[in-house]
Amino acid sequence: MKTIKILTYLLLLVTANVFAQQEKGIVGNNNWLDNWTEFQPNQNNYREPTQIISGNITENTNLYKRDTYLLVGDVFVINNATLTIEPGTVILADYTSKASLTISKGSKLIARGTETDPIVFSSNRSVRHAGDWGGITLLGDAPLNKFGNGSVANLHYNLSPENYINVNYGGDNTCSNSGVLKYVRIEYAGKRIRGVGYLNGLLLAGVGNETVLDNIMISYCAGDAYELWGGEVTLNQVVSYRTSSNDFKFNYGVQCKLNNSLAIRSPYSSGSDGSRCLKVMSYDKKEEVDFSKNGTQVIAKNLTMLNDSKDLQANMDMGLINEAVYVGIGATLDMNKSVISGFNPAVILDDRIVINQESLEKVKFTDMYFNNCNGNIFVENNSNNDDLENWYGNAAFFNVYSKSNNLETFIDIENQRRPDYRLRINKIIATNIDSDIDE
Prior knowledge:
Layout: E1 2-5, H1 9-16, H2 18-21, E2 51-57, E3 61-63, E4 68-77, E5 82-85, E6 90-93, E7 100-103, E8 108-112, E9 119-123, E10 136-139, E11 150-151, E12 168-169, E13 179-187, E14 192-193, E15 197-198, E16 202-205, E17 212-219, E18 226-229, E19 232-236, E20 239-241, E21 248-251, E22 255-259, E23 262-265, E24 278-280, E25 297-301, E26 304-307, H3 312-317, E27 325-327, E28 332-336, E29 339-341, E30 347-349, H4 357-360, E31 363-366, E32 369-371, E33 377-379, H5 386-392, E34 400-402, H6 406-409, E35 410-412, E36 420-423, E37 434-437
Parallel strand pairs: 2-4, 3-5, 4-6, 4-7, 5-8, 6-9, 7-10, 8-13, 9-13, 10-16, 13-17, 16-18, 17-19, 17-20, 18-21, 19-22, 20-23, 21-24, 22-25, 23-26, 24-27, 25-28, 26-29, 27-30, 28-31, 29-32, 30-33, 32-34
Antiparallel strand pairs: 1-37, 11-12, 14-15, 35-36
């Protein structure tokens, strides 16, 4: 048991600069989740498919709103072809064949929905579940930090011999373009692959910075919602909702900017292998990495990471809630103006990271709001975090610590159709009372 002083910076900052405080977490003059998101996707009844998509797409192809499409098996867009999807189009993935869509290196996916007419990828089952189908993979030729380039062949069971060339990724083209995903929903993805694990809602491997990735919602994914391997990308206003594994996972030297985005976790849908909102790593195995290349760097601004537990303490006691953020050795994370609410604890650093000024300069938390967490920042397998508390608790970082419940903290999270997860700053009350928080 450790007594931690609840900081009074919030009271000071609200008095001095209310506007700046309102910029924490996801921001917008209006609730940008309206119209295009769906927090109850199982209540949607999509039309029966009228067209089938299967095999390899080898030439420029258009999908139209007037049709509903059934995605069957592993579908590859190859031969530098472009798959263009009209706003409002629905693509249902076949559960029996565990369908998936892969955009091979050099090809493009143009899925440019609108706020009132989003593009939807979902399962074709009458009662849908996480892991019904594979998900979407974009493969590009931007750099990664592994020796040589990469392949996703192991993610495809019974891959046909002619498609082995279509599962490679990585190269030297930082400015490569894999297309556009804008106002897109991906539901019930993340099928399980024997001996490998789970596929992801959206896998970005070697994707370059000309690719547009805005206003994407991934919900009820059995694997990671967003997984990034190498490349250089920017994610704007993206949502991960009730993902079983990690909401955002970064690896193999990816250079990523993650802006104004949201991760909502549920203790009842999280996996048992340490599911987090952010998992930031530079590699899995040291021997596969070329250390002359850039390590993973993530710049995250205006994130909201929330655990929607109805009984937070009971769920923590049962081991259903993990940390929100995990940072691995060799990775760089710069997080600013973000909210972490309801985790156990807020942040864990890999136990191979030596805690000194050099390493802490690579893991930055500034102008943060840590709320209702069972501890703040720790090194893995070490309950003594005095050095980290002193470092990140320095007034120069403008970090705030509080114990407010979700209804007080966010504007309207109980609206089942159109929740509003923006911070309700005028309802948050700073306190001088000491709080006993279990380590």
